[in-house]
Design brief:
about 100 residues; mainly alpha
Length: about 100
């Protein structure tokens, strides 16, 4: 994206006016490129935000899976412990009854 070529025979006043537009940020080609850059920046920001949201969602899902697995493991171990104590109690009671 460059400035269009200067037509032959263009006078100095017209070129000065164009130069002023460029310096002031008012040149049509400059403004068009500026809009394009802004649109690109907005798209990139949106992409980054969506990527961040996806990473957060995936991390949250992984955390919940790990939390559930740890909870299930704890409950299984707790139940095994309860069964062992009940079996030991029953064994002591049987010995006492004999």
């Amino acid at each position: 994206p460059h400035l269009p070529p200067v037509p032959a025979g263009r006078d100095a006043a017209a070129m000065e006016a164009e130069l002023r537009q460029i310096r002031e940020g008012l040149h049509p080609t400059f403004k068009m490129e500026q809009r394009r850059l802004e649109e690109t920046r907005v798209r990139q920001k949106d992409d980054v935000r969506e990527s961040r949201e996806m990473r957060i969602r995936l991390a949250t899902e992984e955390f919940e899976r790990d939390r559930k697995a740890a909870e299930d493991e704890f409950k299984a171990e707790e139940e095994a412990l309860r069964e062992r104590f009940l079996n030991e109690f029953e064994e002591r009671r049987r010995r006492t009854d004999e």
